[in-house]
C-alpha cells in the first residue's frame, strides 16, 4: 500500500525502516524519504509506525529471545 | 437557505472529503488495473470512481444550497494497493468506513432536526453498503477460487487496443 505519493513510499518501506531501528516518525521519514515534500502523508506514516512498533513489542513479549533493540 | 445548524455543513464537508478521496483512489486503481492487463476489474473501479464523483457533486450542491463553502481542497490519504487483492481489501475497508461515517452523520442530522440531510446521508449509507458488499464478495471469491483463478477472469484479450 503506497501512501506517500511524493516519494512513492508504502507500508513495506516504513516497516523495514522500523525493523532497521527507526523509532520515531521523523526518523522513519528521514530514512524512507516519506513526508518530506507536501507532508500530507505524515498521519499515514505515523499510523503504520505505531501499529508496527506495537506488533514488534507484542512479538518481543511473546518471545524473550528476540531483542527488539538489536533487530 | 440556512441549515438548522452550521454542523450540518461540517458533516457534508466531511462526507465530501471522503467522496473526493475515493473518487481519486478508485480512478488510479482503475488505470493501474488496465495497465496490468486486468481491464474487467479496471472497469468496475472506473465506474465506481464516477459514482463517487457524482456523490461528491450532489454534496457540493447541497452545501451551496445551505450557503456554505464546499471544501474541495481537503482530501483524505490516498492509499494505493500494490496488488489487485490489496486494492480490493483497501476498497472494502474504505466502504465500511463510509457506512460508519454516514450512519453517524445521519444520526446527528436527525438529532439536529434536519431530516432532509439525514435522508441524504441514509441514501448514501445504502450506496456504500452495496459497494462494501461487492468488494466483500470479490474477496470471498478469491478465497474460493484462489487469486490466480480470480485474476484470470479479469483479463480481456478480445478488445483490440484503441477501441
Ligand atoms: S505524500 Fe508524502 S510528502 Fe507528499
Ligand atoms: Fe460514495
Ligand atoms: Fe462507495
Task: Please explain how this structure is put together.
The complex is a heterodimer of chains A (71) and B (163). Chain A is mainly alpha-helical. Chain A has one domain (2-62): Arc Repressor Mutant, subunit A. Chain A contains three helices and two strands. Chain A has helices at 11-19, 25-32, 42-62, and strands at residues 2-4, 9-10. The longest helix of chain A is centred in the C-terminal third of the chain and has 21 residues, at 42-62. Chain A is elongated and about 40 Å long. The model of chain A has no long low-confidence stretch (mean pLDDT 91). Chain B has a single domain, classed as Ferritin, CATH 1.20.1260. Chain B has helices spanning 6-35, 39-65, 84-112, 115-152. The relative contact order of chain B is 0.16. The A-B interface holds A 1-3, 5, 10, 40-41, 43-44 and B 75, 77-82, 86, 90. The complex binds FE2/S2 (inorganic) cluster (FES) and fe (ii) ion (FE2) (2 copies). FE2/S2 (inorganic) cluster binds at residues 4-7, 34-41 of chain A.
Features of this protein?
heterodimer, A: 71 residues, mainly alpha, Arc Repressor Mutant, subunit A, 2 strands, elongated, B: 163 residues, Ferritin, binds FE2/S2 (inorganic) cluster, binds fe (ii) ion
Topology:
The complex is a heterodimer of chains A (71) and B (163).
Chain A lengths: L1 E3 L4 E2 H9 L5 H8 L9 H21 L9
Antiparallel strand pairs in A: 1-2
Chain B lengths: L5 H30 L3 H27 L18 H29 L2 H38 L11
Helix pairs in contact in B: 1-2, 1-3, 3-4
The structure holds FE2/S2 (inorganic) cluster and fe (ii) ion (2 copies).
The site of FE2/S2 (inorganic) cluster has 12 residues of chain A, from loops.
Overall 3D shape of chain A: elongated
Give the largest interface pair and sizes: A-B, 9 and 9 residues
Instruction: Tell me the CATH superfamily of chain A.
Output: BFD-like [2Fe-2S]-binding domain
Helix and strand sequence of chain A: EEHHH
CATH architecture identity of chain B = Up-down Bundle
Helix fraction of chain B, binned, reads over 70%
Task: Supply the CATH class of chain B.
Answer: Mainly Alpha
Strand order of the largest sheet of chain A: 1-2
Biggest pleated-sheet summary of chain B? none
* Name of the CATH first level of chain A: Mainly Alpha
Q: In CATH terms, what is the fold-level topology of chain B?
A: Ferritin
CATH architecture of chain A: Orthogonal Bundle
Counting structural domains of chain A, the number is 1
- Overall tally of domains of chain B: 1
What is the residue-mean pLDDT of chain B, rounded to a whole number? 97
> Helicity range of the residues of chain A?
40-55%
Distance between the termini of chain B: 47 Å
Give the amount of beta strand of chain A, in percent: 5-15%
Average pLDDT level of chain A: 91
Distance between the termini of chain A: 24 Å
Structural class, from helix and strand content of chain B? mainly alpha
Amino acid at each position: 500500500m503506497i501512501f506517500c505519493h511524493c516519494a512513492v513510499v508504502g507500508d513495506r518501506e516504513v516497516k523495514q525502516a522500523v525493523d532497521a531501528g527507526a523509532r520515531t516518525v521523523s526518523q522513519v521519514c528521514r530514512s524512507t524519504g516519506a513526508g518530506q515534500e507536501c507532508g500530507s502523508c505524515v498521519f499515514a506514516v505515523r499510523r503504520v509506525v505505531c501499529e508496527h512498533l506495537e506488533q514488534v513489542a507484542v512479538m518481543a513479549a511473546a518471545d524473550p529471545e528476540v531483542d527488539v533493540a538489536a533487530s | 437557505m440556512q441549515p438548522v445548524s452550521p454542523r450540518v455543513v461540517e458533516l457534508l464537508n466531511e462526507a465530501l472529503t471522503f467522496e473526493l478521496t475515493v473518487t481519486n483512489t478508485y480512478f488510479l486503481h482503475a488505470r493501474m488495473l488496465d495497465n496490468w492487463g486486468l481491464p474487467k476489474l479496471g472497469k468496475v473501479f472506473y465506474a465506481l470512481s464516477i459514482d463517487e464523483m457524482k456523490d461528491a457533486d450532489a454534496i457540493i450542491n447541497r452545501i451551496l444550497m445551505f450557503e456554505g463553502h464546499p471544501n474541495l481542497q481537503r482530501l483524505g490519504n490516498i492509499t494505493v494497493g500494490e496488488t489487485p487483492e490489496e486494492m480490493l481489501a483497501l476498497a472494502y475497508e474504505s466502504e465500511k468506513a463510509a457506512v460508519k461515517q454516514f450512519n453517524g452523520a445521519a444520526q446527528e442530522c436527525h438529532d439536529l432536526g434536519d431530516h432532509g440531510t439525514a435522508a441524504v446521508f441514509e441514501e448514501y449509507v445504502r450506496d456504500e453498503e452495496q459497494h462494501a458488499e461487492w468488494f466483500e464478495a470479490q474477496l470471498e471469491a478469491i478465497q474460493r477460487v484462489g487469486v490466480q483463478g480470480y485474476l484470470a477472469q479479469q483479463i480481456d484479450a478480445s478488445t483490440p487496443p484503441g477501441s
